[in-house]
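Narrative of activities, Objective 1.

The group set out to show that a structural description can be obtained from nothing but a protein's sequence at a throughput compatible with the screening campaign. Below is one input-output pair from the validation batch, recorded exactly as produced.
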Amino acid sequence: MESKKNKKWGVVVGYGNRGQVYADYSLDCPDEFGVAAIVDPNPFKLEEAQKRYGLSKDRLFKSFNEFVAAKVPCDFAINATMDQYHYETAMQILNAGYDMLMEKPIVANREQLLEIQACAKEHGCKVFVCHVLRYTPYYKKIKQLLNEGAIGEIMTMELNEHVVVAHYLAAYDRGKWNSEANCGSGFLLAKSCHDLDIMCWLNNASAPKKVSSFGGRKLFVKENMPEGASEFCYQCKHEKECPYSALKQYLDLNAMPFLVWNDLNKPLDEITQEEKEEFLKWHNYGRCAYIAGGDLVDRQNIIVEFENGSCCTFTLVGGTTKPDRYLHIVGTKGEIEGKLEENKFVLRKYDRNVFHVKGDEIDISNEVINNAKYGGHSGGDFAIMHDLIAYLNGDESSVSITKLEDSINGHLCVYAAEKSRKENVIVSI
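Output recorded for this entry:
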């Protein structure tokens, strides 16, 4: 395998949806990046990857140790394993001496986070975290304006994330992230460590000092289950009118198919209607939404005080009518307000001659490259690979690059928020 000038080769460890999204950069930009190998214990996943990237069988591995022993030429590793395997796989990758692009969240606790940081330092490895929102044209432009002093010093910041019903049900109620005990991450860590990372990154003129949080599970609980409802939707008398029916969600609306049908181990376009119907008769994806979930919250509020006195809030809601990320930053000289999904925001600068400043709308929608079939993150999935490859080639100009050291504060805020919520205390970072 001969590397072209500037071309980088990566091994993908964990070939699920996220692994495929990052690996697909090799299809979009083959002169910049190539898939050196795939590591996944599932033979079906390996076969899928082999066909998709034209790999030979000696580039497919069931364990990372097998990959290391094969001495495949490789520049870095993409760790896209499930949350509960992040620590183990990260330590394997770093101890083998590879730079690593690591899917978020890094790990679920401070001790393991600092161990990974120490191991990377010991072996001289770079660790980049997949906080893909940083790389979207939307947040990147906002960060550039903040760095230029467009609204002065940050005084307050309001953020929220609304997770649409279909996504919440498929991932955090019926799906594989529905139990903190099983997957190692709560709702805030699994879904919104992105947002607390954004908070700390945009406000990195200071550092978080104290955190408080409240939250709970209110909607998808057994007490809300209709009287006489069945365990599985296919045999339930309420199925035709239930807003959360698995048959409606997954057969009619085809919601989140890359998650729902994953355990069938077949290409999505080859799964028959009969196979889907039978699957929903026994799998958790076919179970009543009110009893399918584990122990995750479906709403949470977080307040963070920074060392310079600025205050930031974040609201997370699972089970909304549409996906939405809202931001409103108030500075000493102006404000920035917008929604990620609209790919535009308003910049208002204080003007003593005007009672109500309307501001200027900044539209960055024409800068978004969103070519992922399942994913995209408003262009962040493509841009993170672009910026990473450039960084590994010596171009460190990206304002977004997520080295491990830059991602620690956001994770510490998540850990503190969960401690605050569970123990009803204010937590110092």
